[in-house]
């Protein structure tokens, strides 16, 4: 097996709100992502999925824990060389395509901003050619480079966000619920686009979502988050066919069945976490890839 592209070890992310109150958003999360792999991160709203993504890409400074990316430690204080490596080889696709795009800039300048910062092109002609090629790759026209974000639909803006992430040819892309704001038909187009680009460039994805059917479709391995703890992780087949943790079973049972006769009598599994103490739980190994917090 190849060395992991990203290794997260015992990550904690706490936010001090006041002198006497601290929000413990992420507590001791550990996982690995290998080159060309898609790791899905699922859980209810507020479980810490987005916080983990932002901590990995260093939009937040981790409270404790170690993050190794591309064989370099990116937790703690970053020197200029490590910071430039991180910014070039790791990109993020944000949840809201409108708020993540600068409304004062044209799409071409937004996509080309990373090229300008890292001076990847030799002249303006090459820069424009790279941007035009990337727009075509995500299903947009090169002429769209002269438009502003408000002139696009939601699906087109999300494609522009994907193009901005891909133009740097990163090794890892953090997709933070990048399809949750889109229509179902557009979701399928965007996910298929991401799979095609992954097959072409061999980039890895950290796919953060709460849509289990889409996570099942795109992910190789899945991690289940609850209250800031990674309660179960394993391959997609292991998680969906043989869930161990009660919270995982509850999540899967909440997925509606398309058959109305079956759905009418189906009862979801209710998980009561009021008496659960995850801090005292131990990680049990089910198989080489399947781990659960019990």
What does the model show?
The chain is α/β, with parallel strands linked by helices and 294 residues long. Helices cover 34% and strands 23% of the residues. It is built from eleven helices and twelve strands. Strands 6-7-8-3-9-10-12-11 form an eight-stranded mixed beta sheet, with helices on both faces. A four-stranded antiparallel beta sheet has the order 2-1-4-5, with helices on one face. A hairpin with a 5-residue loop joins strand 1 and strand 2 (22-33). The longest helix has 18 residues, at 184-201. The mean pLDDT is 92.
TL;DR of this structure?
With 294 residues, the protein is an alpha/beta fold. It has helices spanning 49-56, 80-89, 107-111, 113-118, 124-137, 154-166, 184-201, 212-218, 236-241, 246-253, 260-265, and strands spanning 6-16, 22-33, 38-42, 64-69, 72-73, 90-93, 172-176, 204-208, 221-226, 229-235, 283-285, 291-293.
Helix content: 25-40%
Strand order of the largest sheet: 6-7-8-3-9-10-12-11
Shape: globular
Tell me what portion of residues adopts beta-strand conformation. Answer: 15-25%
**Helix run count:** 11
Gyration radius (Cα, Å) is 20 Å
The assembly state of the depicted protein chains is single chain
What's the number of extended β-strand segments?
12
Class based on secondary structure composition and strand pairing: alpha/beta
Straight-line distance between termini = 28 Å
Query: What is the N-to-C order of secondary-structure elements (H for helix, E for strand)?
Result: EEEHEEHEHHHHEHEHEEHHHEE
Largest sheet: 8 strands, mixed
Low-confidence stretches: none
pLDDT averaged over residues:
92
């Amino acid at each position: 097996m190849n060395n992991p592209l990203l290794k997260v070890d015992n990550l904690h992310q706490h936010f001090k709100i006041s002198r006497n109150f601290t929000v413990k958003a992420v507590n001791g999360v550990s996982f690995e992502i290998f080159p060309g792999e898609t790791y899905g991160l699922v859980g209810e709203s507020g479980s810490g999925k987005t916080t983990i993504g932002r901590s990995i890409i260093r939009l937040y400074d981790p409270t404790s824990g170690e993050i190794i990316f591309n064989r370099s430690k990116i937790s703690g204080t970053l020197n200029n060389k490590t910071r430039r490596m991180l910014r070039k080889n790791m990109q993020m696709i944000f949840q809201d395509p409108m708020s993540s795009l600068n409304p004062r800039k044209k799409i071409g300048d937004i996509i080309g901003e990373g090229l300008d910062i890292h001076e990847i092109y030799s002249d303006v002609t090459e820069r424009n050619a790279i941007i035009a090629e990337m727009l075509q790759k995500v299903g947009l026209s090169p002429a769209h480079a002269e438009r502003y974000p408000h002139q696009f639909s939601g699906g087109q803006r999300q494609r522009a966000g994907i193009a901005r992430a891909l133009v740097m040819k990163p090794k890892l892309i953090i997709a933070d619920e990048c399809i949750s704001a889109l229509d179902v038909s557009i979701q399928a187009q965007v996910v298929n686009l991401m799979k095609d680009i992954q097959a072409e460039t061999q980039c890895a994805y950290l796919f953060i979502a709460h849509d289990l059917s889409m996570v099942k479709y795109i992910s190789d391995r899945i991690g289940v988050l609850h209250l800031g703890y990674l309660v179960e992780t394993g391959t997609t087949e292991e998680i969906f066919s043989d869930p161990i943790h009660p919270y995982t079973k509850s999540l899967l049972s909440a997925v509606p069945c398309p058959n109305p006769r079956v759905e009418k009598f189906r009862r979801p599994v209710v998980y009561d976490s009021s008496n659960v103490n995850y801090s005292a739980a131990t990680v049990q190994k089910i198989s080489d890839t399947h781990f659960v917090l019990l």
